[in-house]
């Protein structure tokens, strides 16, 4: 909405509120940040040999609409900073991937493979965080 928010207000002190709002924003998009039509491509990319995964994921990101790429780059740079402060917030690459994977990347229609999809969703997000500079440059 057009409401102006004062992030210094005490109601925003709980980081879970802000994180929840961020996740809700991405969850309520008409289409995930990693678009539906690329879901299986990203899953196939993460199944490749480790040396080929980064290149495959980078190529797929370049196929996404430009606003998705730009948003993804900003979001992942922020999430990387969250992980870099892991001593304070106890967030690791894996925990960030678990929190954001299913929100950013999902199939258009859920099948019986929800548990398998979750593993791949998390692995894709974790790979992007680990290889941020290789994928998006410095």
CATH top level class name? Mainly Alpha
Helix count equals 8
Uncertain segments: none
The radius of gyration is 15 Å
Instruction: Quickly count the domains.
Output: 1
In terms of DSSP E residues, the strand content is under 5%
Assigned CATH architecture: Orthogonal Bundle
Kindly state the mean pLDDT as a whole number? Answer: 91
Order of helices and strands: HHHHHHHH
Classify the helix fraction into a percent range: 55-70%
CATH topology: Phosphatidylinositol 3-kinase, Chain A
| Termini Cα gap | 33 Å
Query: Major beta sheet, specifics?
Result: none
Domain Rho-GAP: 1-136
GO molecular function, one term: GTPase activator activity
Protein name: RHG12 protein
Keywords: GTPase activation
Description:
- With 138 residues, the protein is mainly α.
- The chain has one domain (32-136): Orthogonal Bundle (Phosphatidylinositol 3-kinase, Chain A).
- The chain contains eight helices and no strands.
- It has helices spanning 15-27, 39-46, 50-63, 66-84, 86-89, 93-104, 114-130, 132-136.
- α2 (39-46) runs antiparallel to α3 and α6 (93-104) crosses α7 (114-130).
- The radius of gyration is 15 Å and the shape is globular.
- The relative contact order is 0.14.
- The mean pLDDT is 91.
């Amino acid at each position: 909405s057009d409401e102006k928010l004062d992030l210094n207000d005490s109601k925003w002190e709980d980081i879970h509120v802000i994180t929840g709002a961020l996740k809700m924003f991405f969850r309520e998009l008409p289409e995930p940040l990693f678009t539906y039509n690329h879901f299986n491509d990203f899953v196939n990319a993460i199944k490749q040999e480790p040396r080929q995964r980064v290149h495959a994921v980078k190529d797929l990101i370049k196929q996404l609409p430009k606003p998705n790429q730009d948003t993804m780059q900003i979001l992942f740079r922020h999430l990387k900073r969250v992980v870099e402060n892991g001593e304070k917030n106890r967030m690791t690459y894996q925990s960030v991937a678990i929190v954001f994977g299913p929100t950013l990347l999902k199939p258009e229609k859920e099948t019986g493979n929800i548990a398998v999809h979750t593993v791949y969703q998390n692995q894709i997000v974790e790979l992007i965080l680990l290889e941020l500079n290789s994928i998006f440059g410095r």
